[in-house]
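retry 2 of 3: previous attempt timed out while embedding zinc ion. Reduced batch size to 1 and resubmitted. Inputs unchanged:
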Amino acid sequence: MKEIQLEFKIKIYQSLEELPLSSQNLILKAREAAQRAYAPYSGYRVGAAVLLGNGEVVTGNNQENAAYPSGLCAERTAMFYASSRFPGETMCSIAVSTISNSALSGKFAKPCGSCRQVIAEYEDLSGIPIVIILDGSSAITVVNGIDTLLPFRFKKEDMGK
Ligand SMILES: [Zn+2]
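retry 2 succeeded.
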């Protein structure tokens, strides 16, 4: 038996102003998108903003439905929209922001497992680590690449593709 310890680094910023301007802009766009979320059932509003290699920023937010599984998270809404509008374009970074009961929720936004898998796919297509910016009221957490959030992820190579 062999035991291996995995390590990863995250950056934690105490305020928006500490981040590079492009990241600040992306977070503000994610916050704006969260305001427009359709979340009548959970009241948990999430916004996401994706910065593309061509400089475009594409946003999305969570879309709920009375038939719960029919809804979609903000991160996937934004990334699918980005891919449908600009197919093949590099995705450089994604910011995710949450609002609960109109106040920026504490801690920080955390993508669900399905969204992490989708981020991973677009990261593979982009060929560079996607910078993932997780907004929160007391801190902003930044990770460089999806492997930090989804180690041992499923890849198309696992299917022999
Ligand atoms: Zn999700």
